[in-house]
Amino acid sequence: MIEQQYIDLFEQYRSELDRYSSEAMNSYRDAAFETFKNIGFPTSQNEDYKHSNIARAFDADLGLNLRNIPIPVNPYDAFKCDVPNLSTNLYFLINDRYYDKNQHPEFLPEGVFVGSLQVFSVNYPKQFEKYYAKIADYSDNGVVAYNTMFAQDGFVVYVPKNVSVDKPLQLINILRGGVDLNVNRRILIIAEENAHVKLLVCDHTVDDVNFVVTQVTEIFADVSAQVDMYELEENSVKVTRLNNLFSEQKEKSNVVTSGITLHNGYTRNNYRYRILGEHAEAHAGGLAICDKSQHIDNFAFLDHSVPNCTSNELFKTVLQDKSTGVFCGKILVERDAQKTQAYQTNRNLCASEDARMYSKPQLEIYADDVKCSHGLTTGHLDDEALFYMRARGIDKEEARLLLMVAFTRDVVDLIRIETLQERLVNLIDKRFRGELMRCGNCNVCK
Amino acid sequence: MWQLLSYSYYQINYFRAALNRAAYLIILHVITNMLKIKNLHAIVEDKEILKGVDLEVKPGEVHAIMGPNGSGKSTLASVLAGNPKYEVTRGSIIFNGKDLLDMEPEDRAREGIFLSFQYPVEIPGVSMVNFMRAAVNEQRKYRNEQPITASDFLKLMRDKRELLGMDSQLVNRSVNEGFSGGEKKKNEIFQMAMINPLLSILDETDSGLDIDALRVVADGVNKLQTKENATILITHYQRLLEYIKPDFVHVLYAGKIVKSGGPDLALELEKRGYDWLITPYPKTHL
Fold first, then answer.
1. Are A385 and B121 in contact (CB < 8 Å)?
2. pLDDT interval class at B25 (50, 70, 90)
3. pLDDT grade, residue B208 (50/70/90)?
4. Residue B21 has pLDDT above 60, yes or no
5. Alpha helix (H) ranges present in A22-78?
6. How far is Cα A401 from Cα A322, in angstroms, rounded to an integer?
């Protein structure tokens, strides 16, 4: 049994685990441990994981840095983001630890807390208790249970009532290690009533070892709050990324999330959105570009439980070489959720003979006065468009490239930071040209 | 007068074939002909559409190819541009002394062939500006020229846009996306103006245009016509030929050119239709 070594590890090193975390975080471990012992990691026997055998990733000799042994890295040296005009407040997580020598170029509005989850649990005990591990339900999700058992630190954005953080926040997750490593990371975003915040999370790998990363993100958008959360994965092919994002929204709130997988190894993104208040809007984007034998699995579940809400999902995949893509999107419109507008679109491009895409859209509607739709296409590049471009003298390869970049455009358009859009178009173009081993001056991706 | 000239030209042509093409005449040909299509056969999905087309075009000339639906007009245009959907089974196409059938579509375009599509393709996500910049620069690269500077490019775009009376908004949008039928056709001629080809093939450019748009498009084509370049107009109707005067008119029927003449032929077709040509005709008509 794959899980056994982790069960033993947890029991054996429990005191170490607790010592290098906070009391508040420690109090969640036991319950998660009980669940994990029962359900274990999901395997492809599980319908929702049919095309992604998660358990297999853990069947390896992975280290965990429970004692928080400092890893020598100066992220400011390693990561020089040369994105023109993208001005952000920059933060780092080295593996699963908050990098506390962060330089703050600008002060945040009063009352806002951005930083270490451990510190937050000590300094803001009330808020921590109210939000931490509250929507990240692990009763049927062994990866989230596992993360809750082992997470010792993470990143928090807390924006109190009526406060707007105008400048986008940027979190860089850096993976470093001398041996194969398991990293368990936690992100918590709290936007109280009428609070506004935008966060960009970038994933980078520094070292050429195997990483298995679990990440659990919880987003709370209170009444009239606006939260933007964009994730950009640029990991090495040796990284397995098991990402679980949970979002909960109240009345008139507006949440935009977008997960862009530019470079990866094996990625599973679970997105769970719950809309609990009327006139709320949820926009979920996803884009993956894979080649070689990379694997991307996007799983989205969106739950409308109250009337008059809007949701819009747009997931796209571009597959080349022998890569595989999976999309499973489920929209649930509960009986009371009248006047719901829910749209889901999944478009996939298989640009090679050997690429494989598995897609499963699902709509479950129990209300009778709703507008819902889902659309799914998987295809090759448009031959007519290719010929049209070639007939203007554009090289076949260049035409293919332009079409692939164009295919990704509407996902990029969902993003509400214009400079980030420009940056992404640029990065996507480089990605297709095979030049994305490093972006400009950045030394992070090797 | 034109009719007379063109008849005598075709008689010479016929005579020449009968003489089994003396070498000096072949040399003469390479120099004077821009395009020479010989006995062209082409199939699409195993169905033979072109069944032996012969056509010669010299610099400075405007040729109109007319014919009923399904006669192979658009196939001829597609084959010239190199659409991979069509397969050439016999015959040859020589363009400025080079074997066109050996070339990829993009190289044909770089050699100076331009096809104005009957159904311009929508390409969501690719802006007109990027599309045109890529096209112009690929052509320049082929001629060993430096890429166009940003300011020259913008000026070129503006000039050509004005030539066609196009809305500045259109060029900021994705290629043909959400364009009306007329806008798409104008956009084809706009691209032609940007690229400045040697041989333009306009495939049913007049279809779907109202009379005002037709005039604008025709004006654009006329302004671009010089002594060095040539145009092949593919059309159903005589209407376009009131605005763009052809030097020669050919009737394509069942995959062959069954009749060639001067501009008067188009008028005659307008009056009499195609029936008188397509009933089994005696060989002497050729």
1. yes
2. very low
3. confident
4. no
5. 23-26, 29-39, 55-58, 75-78
6. 18
Q: Which amino acid is at B234?
A: I
Chain A residues with beta carbon closer than 8 angstroms to that of B130? 402
Residue B14 has, within 13 A of its CA and on its CB side, a CA count of 11
Q: What is the structure's pLDDT at A443?
A: 44
Look-up: residue for tokens 């937050």?
A120
**pLDDT tens column, A9-37:** 999 999 999 999 999 999 999 999 999 99
Is the distance from CB of B56 to CB of B37 less than 8 angstroms?
yes
Give Cβ neighbours of residue A211 (< 8 Å, ≥ 6 apart): A175, A177, A180, A181, A182, A183, A205, A235, A238, A239, A240
Interface of A with B (CB under 8 A): 382-385, 387-396, 398-399, 402-403, 405-410
- Partners of A287 in beta bridges: A260, A316
What domains can be seen in chain B, in order of their start residue?
2-285 (3.40.50.300)
State whether residue B83 sits within 8 Å of chain A by CB. yes
Strands (E), A207-351: 211-221, 226-234, 239-249, 254-263, 266-275, 281-290, 295-304, 310-319, 324-333, 341-350
Q: Which of B105, B125, B134 sits opposite A398 (nearest CB)?
A: B134
Lowest mean pLDDT among A281-290, A431-440, B111-120, B271-280: A431-440
Write down the ipTM of this complex.
Answer: 0.87
Q: Which residues of B touch A433 (CB under 8 A)?
A: none
pLDDT at B115 over 60: yes
Lookup: tokens for B169: 């908004």
A392, A396, A403 member nearest B135 (Cβ): A392
Is the pLDDT assigned to residue B11 strictly greater than 70? no
Cα–Cα distance between B262 and A136 in angstroms, integer?
80
Residue B124, chain A, CB below 8 Å: the answer is: yes
Q: How do the domains of chain A map onto residue ranges?
A: 4-383
pLDDT computed for residue A79 by the predictor: 65
